[in-house]
Structures are given as C-alpha cells and as structure tokens.
Specification:
alpha+beta; Ubiquitin-like (UB roll); N-terminal domain of TfIIb; 8 helices; elongated; binds iron/sulfur cluster; binds FE2/S2 (inorganic) cluster
Length: 347
C-alpha cells in the first residue's frame, strides 16, 4: 500500500493510502470533535461535527469519512469551524430535553461534553413531543427516545458488531427515529455501550447512581464461560452498579453478552458459598481451603491405592476460563494418571 503525505494544523503526516483525516489527525496527536464516530464501527457520517477545512475546497469536509490525499493541507480548528460546530450542537439541543439532572449518562455524556466545550448557553428547552410516548424497553435496557441525537451508533453496533439487526431508522411524519425489533433483540447491551448519550440506559440500575459516584473501575475476566471476555466492574460503595466491556482488549473488544453485562447479582446472593464445606455425619460444616484440599488429596491417594487412577474422573465447569480447564486436564492426566476428563458444556 502506498503512503500519502499531508499537513494537518501545520504538522506533516505520512500515512498509508486510505487513512481518513480523522485517523491521521489522531495519529499526530490532534483531536477533532466527533459525536457519531466510534472506534469499533465503520464511519457513520451522521453528525457533521468532525468537519475540517481542506485547502482548495470551498466547504468543510467530514474528517471521519474523507481519506487523506497526497499534498492535502487540513485545518481542524478555526473560528468558522467552531461556529459551524456550535450550530450543529444548537440544532441537536433544539430537540433535546435538558434532562441532565435525571439522566444516567450525565457526567460521561459526549453531548454534554461537546456542548460545554463549545460554550453553548441559552438554548430554549424543546416542547414535549407526542412521538416520544412509547419508549422501547426490554428486561435490561430502556430507551429515552427524546434524548436520541440520531447518531446511529446503536443501529450500526447491533448490525456490524453483534450481527443482529434489531435496530433501524424509521422515517416518520415528524422526522426520523430509531425503531426497535423486540423479537430480535437479545439484550446484549452493545447499543447502550456505544450510545454517546442517555438515550439508551440500563434498566436494572436506572437512576440509582451518578457516574461520578463510581469510586472504582475494576478490570476482570467474565466468569460465565471460557471465552474470557474482559470486563470493567463499575463499583460504588463496594457494590457493582454496572458492567461494561473493555473497549481495547481482546478477546471481546468491548462486547459482552447478556450474562456478562447484567448477570452479576449472584455475587450478592445470601446463598452464595464463600468457604469450603465438608460433610460430616450428614451435615455440612465450614472448613478452610487448606483443610478441604488436604481431605481431597488424601481421599484421591486412598482411591488410587485401592482401585487405580482410572477410578477417578474430573469434569471442569463451563464457567471456568480456558486456562483453568487446561490446568485441570494437566493435573488429572500428568499427576493423577487418568484420561477420565470432561467438560460440562460437552454433555
Ligand atoms: S443525554 Fe446527555 S445532554 Fe442529554 S440529558 Fe442526558 S446527560 Fe444531559
Ligand atoms: S441490546 Fe443488543 S441485540 Fe438488543 S438492540 Fe441493543 S445491540 Fe441490538
Ligand atoms: S439511541 Fe443513542 S446510539 Fe442510538 S442513535 Fe440515539 S443517541 Fe445514537
Ligand atoms: S464524527 Fe464524522 S460525521 Fe460524525
């Protein structure tokens, strides 16, 4: 692939052919405001905020969709661009409720940040619209359609990333809106993860916490299956209030399924086992891990001495990560000496 040379805000850049102006600017440490663009999606081109000036062109171009060409001279910040971006944001706010005090996204809302960055004040709040009377909701997600900025990230994510296509754009008399096909939706929450505003929110913890109250974000591996998706646990006062996928980590790159994203209540179950139990005289009693492991090791030795290693078998749990299942089979094959191994997901 050939390389092209251009100048962005006075800095020379050399990038592979096909690189967009937005990507080239990012590589040079130059931030261009965006709203619909998302790293994991193909450029959408719906918001117009990423406009830049290109020498020789009368009108600004969208940097997220326009490739760099050889000799191009680009300006990303100017009074004209600032004013045009302000106009775009004002036109969004003309249809957007000033809901921030009761919006779960407040504090990490891209629209809020862009409005602040562009110093917009004095926009009249919109009148309530009758088209927003029947919001979409599943067990885990809820839409606030009046907060939607029609960036289309959710539609693309549901199709491009999840391959489901439960979302689409509906043309209505008074404009466009996002349409939902409840029968197709699997409540994976990918649309919530990419939504830049509070138009899609998590139902199970709605209005129970503010984004700035999260005191820790703990990275961990999802405990539900062997894929090993990387999660971020958003913790407030020692309790998980939200789980998101880690955007830039393999193997899931931000994706999670419904279990990984919403199935964390078991952690707080009163029935959850937190210590080993040993059965004695028909009753369980609590034991330390040392005592429990010693007991298992002693019984294994006794069984092998009496009946040989093939009298023992092991089944690993589908909720174990691949590395744990690997270690389990290694232990039983190489140490115990039996090939009696299996995995519960196979049966
Ligand atoms: S989506 Fe953003 S700007 Fe709109 S109400 Fe929520 S926090 Fe405020
Ligand atoms: S929850 Fe998943 S399947 Fe449902 S609309 Fe959102 S992205 Fe599509
Ligand atoms: S629901 Fe969110 S992601 Fe979807 S179009 Fe509206 S603002 Fe964009
Ligand atoms: S970020 Fe380029 S059009 Fe929205």
């Amino acid at each position: 692939m050939g390389m092209v040379k251009a100048t962005i805000d006075g800095s020379d850049v050399l990038v592979p052919e096909g690189t967009t102006i937005l990507q080239a600017a990012k590589g040079a440490g130059i931030r261009i405001p965006t709203l619909c663009f998302h790293e994991r999606l193909k450029p959408i081109g719906s918001c117009g905020l990423c406009i830049v000036e290109v020498a020789g062109k009368a009108t600004p171009v969208g940097s997220c969709e326009t490739p760099v060409t050889d000799g191009m001279t680009v300006t990303t910040r100017s009074d004209r661009l600032f004013s045009l971006r302000q106009d775009i944001l004002k036109s969004i706010l003309a249809h957007h409720p000033l809901d921030c005090p009761i919006c779960d996204k407040a504090g990490e809302c891209l629209l809020q940040d862009l409005v602040f960055e562009h110093g917009i004040t004095g926009v009249e709040p919109p009148a309530p619209s009758p088209k927003f009377t029947a919001p979409y909701a599943t067990t885990f997600l809820k839409s606030w359609p009046e907060r939607c900025v029609l960036c289309l990230r959710c539609v693309k994510a549901c199709t491009e990333i999840q391959g489901i296509g439960a979302l689409s754009v509906a043309e209505e008399q008074d404009g466009q809106r996002i349409a939902y096909d409840q029968d197709k939706c699997v409540s994976c929450g990918e649309c919530i993860q990419v939504c830049p505003t509070g138009a899609l929110v998590e139902k199970k913890t709605e209005l129970r916490w503010r984004t700035w109250e999260v005191d820790k974000k703990i990275r961990t591996t999802c405990p539900y299956c062997g894929v090993g998706c990387q999660q971020l646990l958003h913790v407030k006062d020692g309790r998980i209030v939200k789980v998101s996928g880690v955007e830039d980590a393999e193997p899931n790159r931000g994706r999670l399924c419904v279990k990984g994203r919403y199935g964390y209540d078991f952690i707080y179950s009163e029935d959850r086992l937190k210590t080993p139990l040993i059965r004695e005289n028909g009753y369980f009693r609590e034991a330390s891990f040392e005592e429990a492991i010693d007991l298992v090791a002693r019984r294994f030795k006794e069984i092998i001495a009496e009946s040989g290693p093939d009298a023992i078998g092991a089944v690993s749990c589908a909720r174990s990560i691949n590395e744990d299942s690997y270690q389990m089979q290694k232990l039983f094959r190489a140490v115990i000496g039996t090939n009696n191994i299996d995995h519960c997901a196979r049966t």
